[in-house]
């Protein structure tokens, strides 16, 4: 029988970046204030994290009326040495299957451009940047090499 822990430790298995990505994947219209409230951090670091995740290509933000809606690119690989061969969609699928996280509204994945071997992915035309486009460093003149914006 597994041992039960009476008090949860003060640390987390997920970084704030991972937790923010999971929240926006499961609740596509969640606000930065709501994310901060759930994570116990203020709105400002949440917005910074969303910006950093967006720069890396993980979520895509679009305006729907007065709110933002996020779509997470499930084919991108997770950063870091331990899970580097796992796609974001694989991790989200595992978390959904064991925790009951809502699925949100995620785009389909193009298997030709995905390094994921998950049987849950269905091939469709991808509108996400390719991995080579995402790996380009920002230009020295201050513009982002992927979007061409400053």
| CATH T-level fold name | Arc Repressor Mutant, subunit A
Distance between the terminal alpha carbons, to the nearest Å? 56 Å
> Largest sheet at a glance?
2 strands, antiparallel
Output the helix-strand order: HHHEEHH
Q: Which descriptor suits the 3D outline?
A: globular
Computed over alpha carbons, the radius of gyration is: 17 Å
Low-confidence stretches: 105-127, 136-141, 143-147
Q: What does the average pLDDT come to?
A: 75
How many separate structural domains?
1
Query: What is the CATH homology-level superfamily?
Result: Winged helix-like DNA-binding domain superfamily/Winged helix DNA-binding domain
How many extended strands?
Answer: 2
Structural class: alpha+beta
Indicate the CATH architecture.
Orthogonal Bundle
DSSP summary: helix tally: 5
The level-1 CATH class: Mainly Alpha
Helix content: 25-40%
Strand content: 5-15%
Strand order of the largest sheet: 1-2
Short description:
The chain is α+β, with helices and mostly antiparallel strands. The protein has helices spanning 16-26, 32-39, 43-55, 88-99, 131-134, and strands at residues 59-64, 67-72.
Structure description:
- With 150 residues, this protein is α+β, with helices and mostly antiparallel strands.
- It has a single domain (16-134), classed as Arc Repressor Mutant, subunit A, CATH 1.10.10.10.
- The protein contains 5 helices and 2 strands.
- A hairpin with a 2-residue loop joins strand 1 (59-64) and strand 2.
- Helix 1 packs across helix 3 (43-55) and helix 2 (32-39) crosses helix 3.
Task: Kindly list the characteristics that best describe this protein.
150 residues, alpha+beta, Arc Repressor Mutant, subunit A, 2 strands
